[in-house]
Amino acid sequence: MDKFYITTAIDYVNGAPHIGHAYEKILTDIIARHFSQRTDNMFFLTGTDEHGIKIQKTAASKGIQPKELCDENAQKFKDAWKALDINYNKFIRTTDDYHENAVQKIFKKLVEQGDIYKHSYEGLYCTGCECFLNPKDLTEDGLCPDHLKKPEVVKEENYFFKLTKYKDAIIKHIKENPDFIVPSFRANEVLNQLEDIQDISVSRAKSNVQWGIDVLDDNEQSIYVWIDALSNYITALGYDTESVSEDFKKYWPADVQVIGKDILKFHSIYWPAFLLALDLPLPKHILAHGWITIDETKMSKSLGNVISPTSVLETFELKEPDAFRYYMATSAPCGRDGNYSDDDFKEKVNAHLANSMGNLLNRTLSMLVKYFDGVVQPKNLSLVDGAVELTKKALGTVKIVENHFNHFEVAEAAQEIIGIVDMTNKFVTDNAPWTLAKEDKMDECAQVLTTVLEVMCIISALIYPYCPNIAQSMAKQLSFDLSIKLDDLTADNIKEGKLISKEEITPVFLRVDSELADKSAKK
Q1: Active site residue 147
Q2: pLDDT in tens, 106-119
Q3: Of 91, 152, 259, 485, whose CB count within 10 A is highest?
Q4: Which residue among 90, 298, 399, 485 is the active-site one?
Q5: Is the pTM value of this prediction over 0.85?
Q6: Of 136, 301, 522, 523, which one is the catalytic site residue?
Q7: Contacts (Cβ under 8 Å, ≥6 apart) of 231
């Protein structure tokens, strides 16, 4: 691959991050880390959306300036992503000067070419959605279906973008590119929305909304939401209507843009229309993930079940976020809703990361020390039934995992990785190296252990995007170079000679309910 550019939605800083925000960032980070194993040119963008009426009102209620509120909450997002090992290349804030300047130029260009026009309008405005709604979109009680609040009637003169002008081109693109929207079953939903799409307001009167980017040449209007927020994906790369940066030339179009399903309309209709108006290529894929419920209940402040991104780490006293990352990434198939519960978290990470994967490496290295003083013997895998087949299966799993990631099937790829772990555990049980040692069949015993260690090198590379700290611990004990590209992986990673001593063997992941791993469970 020559490059890979991936983005998340930018989070609205009206409040602190929660587990839903964390799910998207973890999912994106795992995809980014996987593709960093396939290209040297990977760029991962995330950030915060910092303009709008909600921030203006919240800041006023706290007696502070909007920028002060943005600074405070943007840092909370940065701190959370650091705790979760979200390894982004750039964090954009829509209050960054370079972004605001570029957005003003984009807006002006669209006005000058006739794609944006001024128009008096009266409509139903949902503050939560940051957009006008059609009456037919409301519930029977006249509420916004997403926020369950009655939209306010707004009448003002705004700038409108000619969305209808690009309707046919967007429909054509979606139909001719069935993998543009992922998962594909959401494409029909978007096509239905396109049927009666209307031009959209892209500014608000300053008399109503002061906290926004000023429209050039019109000091009574603020650029509002969608041209501002969506443009971050190109302004972060240095896009400007007057010049194009090397990063923009290198990375645009985005390979995948990861968003929540609730903002799919804006990313699969509004965003392509803006790009078409700017004569820019469309992103290759829009990945719309589902929502995360808590104990099968939708998160709600009124129910008191909103979980912060780091609370799980604090509750279970986890020094590293790997277990939480793995659990969240495997909580739902591609594009579907997922669920978090403490009991399921403990059960899954203990079964997969501690009992299956971690214990497999630990006991194999322990037997290598016990029977061979930690020295890897000359390789001859043909001495053991199933050894060659297992290594071939492990290498085949690499291709299967790559294919899943090509379709952004992160949970499905993890199943394949744990599948090869389970297969390797069965190989150990079937060949019983402890019995071979008792029977003084040391050559066969050595080949069983070597086979497992070879496969564990491959597993450490595959699990790295999900569990970077666990993978690094595995690789260190295996003397394996984790920086290797996936396409360069072989079944010849373990070299003859001294590999490890007893003192160097440490569990890569302790059970969550063990005394060492989870002191809180004993309190």
Answers
A1: yes
A2: 999 999 999 999 99
A3: 259
A4: 298
A5: yes
A6: 301
A7: 99, 102, 103, 106, 239, 274
